[in-house]
Design goal:
Oligomer: single chain
Protein name: (diamondback moth) hypothetical protein
Number of strands: 0
Order of helices and strands: HHHHHH
Shape: elongated
Organism: Plutella xylostella (Diamondback moth)
Length: about 120
């Protein structure tokens, strides 16, 4: 009797393995279109205009592909080394009150929620 039990377990495991291999092959074959850029996908897709027609005008900015953010291209790339020049640079940035990505997310109002992210990387 144990031989029949192990044979049925082995048969189930082989079938599950074959199913997993088949799913992997099908996913690999269907993901070839995912390697393209988002802008290329929007240009290739013939129904993108139809989709944009269904969405309100205020939400189009979230659906369109925007160029990469270039806010990291600062002229002060080397950066100040001492604390006084760091504070001076921070005050200068705060006085400028520059709003990045305003073209994507819209103008800032008095009741707008703002999330500030500080990124630090060591050289």
């Amino acid at each position: 009797m144990p031989r029949l039990k192990y044979a049925s377990i082995l048969r189930v495991l082989v079938l599950v393995g074959l199913l997993c291999i088949w799913i992997q092959i099908m996913l690999a074959a269907s993901s070839s279109g995912l390697d393209r850029d988002g802008e290329d996908m929007m240009n290739i897709n013939e129904t993108s205009e139809q989709v944009l027609a269904l969405v309100p005008q205020e939400l189009h900015k979230y659906l369109l592909v925007h160029p990469k953010n270039v806010t990291g291209n600062s002229t002060e790339r080397a950066g100040p080394k001492n604390i006084t020049s760091i504070r001076r640079a921070i005050e200068r940035s705060n006085d400028a009150q520059t709003i990045y990505n305003e073209d994507i997310f819209g103008p800032v109002q008095n009741d707008t929620v703002i999330i500030a992210i500080q990124a630090y990387y060591a050289i």
